[in-house]
Design goal:
It is a single chain. The chain folds into two domains: about 110 residues, Nucleotidyltransferase, domain 5, CATH 3.30.420.40; about 190 residues, Nucleotidyltransferase, domain 5, CATH 3.30.420. The strands form two sheets. It has a five-stranded mixed β-sheet with strand order 3-2-1-4-5, sandwiched between helices. A five-stranded mixed β-sheet has the order 8-7-6-9-10, with helices on both faces. It contains nine helices and ten strands. The chain is globular.
Length: about 325
């Protein structure tokens, strides 16, 4: 029998999301809520657990539904998995199943039996390659059917991410303020406006904001939208910075594709995450480089809300098992 109500939990280092779906009504979305970040690489375990609890209680409250009706809970939470004991008092009759972040990226494009490359370009950047068959087309044939690259965090990697573009924008604003930017730009005034800082005290206030507050990873990644907006308006320096991050994302995507696929093969490439809001400034270079080397690859952007996509993936799996 299909599940009555399905609860899907998805989250990482910027935010988490809970979605409630009615499996008996074709997967109708009942309610969706956002909560705080849950990645225990950057957030204390107790805070992560509180974010999960807040997401679950809020989605049930918003839907005006008792947790007793939830018969399945699926999760894709970056970091260590949360045990059933955490939610047992809220959804006492639920079974539990977990998925990976890469599976959610594919699902955001409606792909529930993936064969291809999934890339998340949000606060961080990670790419996965998955084969749905039993062959391996890479040159060495040592890599198996799944590979993952990137996702090392801001200190060790995350090239091609929103954080990378945000940091570049902050540093570009400093250079512009001092008159030593390598190209004309309005980044300094845009950053001042973004954070509500005055030009007269910009140096002191910006240093205090960056180091004493300090700026969080999510706040830095949010600056990517400022840089991308200026780039779209033709700002030379913002355009250079955005192009550099897009090139890094394209390189990560290509390297991941090469790890499991040959140039003549057909497979999917899905990109999702907040950085995709920059549109063709970021997506264009990725799409073009994939098309040049893998002409039969199908490129897509994952746009469905991540927790909703996770819920639909779980429903697909449940229906497939009972088909």
């Amino acid at each position: 029998m299909p599940h009555d109500l399905l609860l899907a939990l998805e989250g990482g280092g910027t935010r988490s999301q809970a979605a409630l779906l009615d499996a008996k009504r074709g997967g109708r979305v009942v309610h969706v809520v956002d909560s705080a970040d849950v990645n225990t690489n950057f957030t204390a375990l107790q805070a992560s657990q509180q974010a999960v609890l807040a997401a679950v209680t809020s989605v049930l409250r918003g839907a005006q539904i008792s947790g007793d009706r939830v018969t399945c809970c699926v999760s894709a939470l970056v970091g260590p998995p949360f045990s059933a004991e955490l939610l047992r008092d809220i959804i006492p009759f639920a079974c539990y199943h977990s998925y990976s972040e890469g599976e959610v990226v594919f699902a955001r494009a409606g792909l529930y039996h993936p064969h291809g490359v999934a890339v998340v370009a949000g606060t961080g950047a990670t790419a996965w390659a998955v084969r749905a068959d039993d062959t391996c087309a890479c040159a060495q044939c040592r890599c198996g059917r799944q590979r993952v690259f990137g996702g090392w965090g801001a200190l060790l990697g995350d090239e091609g991410s929103g954080y990378a573009l945000g940091v570049a924008g902050l540093r570009g604003a400093v250079r512009a303020f001092e008159g030593r930017a390598e190209a004309p730009t309005h980044l300094d005034s845009a950053i001042r406006q973004h954070f509500g800082l005055s030009e007269a005290t910009f140096r002191e206030d910006f240093i205090r904001l960056a180091y004493q507050q300090p700026l969080s990873r999510a706040e830095i990644a949010a600056v990517a939208a400022v840089v991308a907006r200026l780039a779209a308006q033709g700002d030379p320096l913002a355009a250079q910075l955005t192009a550099a991050v897009a090139a890094d994302l394209a390189a990560l995507t290509l390297y991941t594709a090469r790890s499991l696929f040959a140039p003549a093969e057909r497979f999917d490439v899905v990109v999702a995450g907040g950085l995709t809001n920059a549109g063709e400034l970021v997506l264009g270079p990725v799409r073009q480089r994939i098309a040049q080397e893998f002409p039969k690859a199908a490129f897509a952007v994952g746009t469905e809300a991540p927790a909703v996509a996770l819920g639909r993936l779980a429903q697909y799996d449940q229906q497939t098992r009972h088909a």
